[in-house]
């Protein structure tokens, strides 16, 4: 349970988060070996009730709460707050994602916690950030996607009577969680080897996290007044890069946007004439004539099942993949060989589950060794944490 062999073994994190963003950040650190103590209300994190259930426990939470020590506390009680202070005193970092001002209102603001432990790094994740005119507005991940700019881009070009879809996962929460974990490690580096260093306070928001993904769109607007519009499946700055319908109704993503790859692609689809066309020898020329190229590629893909078209393009060393669903991911030999998909026994669910491996690898530690345990029950580690770690406090 110590995370030995992992880079964050011995790094102590207190999680006061709920739902997705804060706990996702803490899980990233836990997967790297940190000792994460997740503080939940007596009824548990509301996220424990999300999604499919087995034996009354959420399947998703098996991943979301893995590698964490779970304790239950009522933060509105004096005893609960005193225990949080005692935990903060021994922690390197604290992650919270309550609405701004909540910790201050219950007497657990940064000033209080850093008075107890001056080296404590505090990462605060919220919808709009800890300041600004929208600070006190409620927000979930969907609001971050909407205001951060990504929902505008996920629309289908030319379609105005259907709302732009979400990408299918809680991307604003996940990105904010990743950024929070990165910032915690950056702050930890700043205190490394300096006994006088004070812990930093980190401010991460859902809107800003999504906004950070908008590539060059902000300077383009500032300089030229350009507002990028939805592009569908294509990449507007490189061609051909698109997703094409196949004979079996499945989709094939093809990236043929280097000069040499483009010529190989045209040879495979039997369009050497386009491969030799002087207009199409550079990316600029191909972007200017992309509709003609895309039409030629899809005329070919529509004659073949996706797997066969993928095999032919793969043999020609052309970047290609079918659009995988979860069945494809779970059964793919590469996912299994790299243990990106792992079989993990969950005692709470009394089942063997498929878990995604942490998205990073460290030499000397296999992916299954990084998943030390699945999400425990509410308060499962109360005795260990409050008795052994805090000496009965």
Structure, explained:
By secondary structure, this protein is α/β, with parallel strands linked by helices. It has 2 domains: 12-212 and 338-389, Crotonobetainyl-coa:carnitine coa-transferase, domain 1 (Rossmann fold); 241-325, formyl-coa transferase, domain 3, CATH 3.30.1540. The chain is built from 19 helices and 13 strands. The strands form 4 sheets. The chain has a 6-stranded parallel sheet with strand order 5-2-1-6-7-8, sandwiched between helices. Strands 9-10-11 form a 3-stranded antiparallel sheet, covered by helices on one side. The protein has a two-stranded antiparallel sheet with strand order 3-4. A hairpin with a 5-residue loop joins strand 9 (241-245) and strand 10. The radius of gyration is 25 Å and the shape is elongated. The model has no long low-confidence stretch (mean pLDDT 96).
């Amino acid at each position: 349970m110590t995370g030995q062999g992992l880079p964050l073994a011995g790094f102590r994190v207190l999680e006061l988060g709920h739902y997705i963003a804060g706990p996702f950040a803490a899980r990233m650190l836990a997967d790297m070996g940190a000792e994460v103590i997740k503080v939940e209300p007596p009824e548990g994190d509301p996220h424990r009730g999300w999604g499919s259930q087995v034996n009354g426990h959420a399947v998703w939470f098996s991943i979301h709460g893995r590698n964490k020590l779970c304790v239950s506390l009522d933060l509105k009680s004096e005893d609960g707050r005193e225990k949080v202070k005692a935990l903060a005193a021994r922690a390197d970092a604290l992650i919270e994602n309550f609405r701004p001002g909540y910790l201050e209102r219950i007497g657990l603001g940064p000033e209080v916690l850093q008075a107890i432990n001056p080296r404590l790094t505090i990462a605060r994740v919220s919808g709009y950030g800890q300041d600004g005119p929208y600070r006190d507005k409620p927000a979930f991940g969907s609001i971050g996607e909407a205001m951060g700019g990504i929902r505008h881009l996920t629309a289908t070009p030319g379609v105005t009577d259907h709302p732009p879809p979400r990408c299918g996962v809680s991307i604003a929460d996940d990105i904010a969680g990743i950024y929070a974990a990165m910032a915690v490690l950056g702050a930890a580096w700043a205190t490394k080897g300096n006994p006088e260093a004070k812990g930093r306070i980190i401010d991460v928001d859902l809107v800003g996290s999504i906004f950070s993904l908008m590539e060059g769109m902000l300077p383009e607007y500032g300089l030229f007044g350009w507002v990028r519009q939805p592009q569908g499946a294509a990449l507007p700055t490189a061609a051909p890069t698109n997703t094409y319908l196949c004979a079996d109704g499945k989709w094939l993503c093809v990236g043929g946007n280097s000069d040499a790859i483009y010529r190989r692609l045209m040879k495979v689809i039997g369009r050497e004439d386009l491969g030799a066309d002087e207009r199409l020898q550079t990316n600029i020329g191909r972007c200017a004539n992309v509709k003609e190229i895309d039409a030629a590629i899809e005329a070919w893909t529509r004659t073949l099942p996706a797997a066969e078209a993928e095999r032919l393009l793969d043999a020609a060393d052309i970047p290609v993949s079918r659009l995988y669903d979860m069945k494809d991911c779970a059964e793919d030999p590469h996912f299994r060989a790299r243990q990106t998909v792992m079989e993990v026994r969950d005692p709470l669910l009394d089942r063997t589950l498929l878990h995604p491996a942490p998205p990073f690898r460290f030499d000397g530690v296999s992916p299954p060794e990084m998943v030390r345990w699945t999400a425990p029950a509410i308060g499962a580690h109360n005795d260990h944490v409050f008795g052994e770690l805090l000496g009965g406090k």
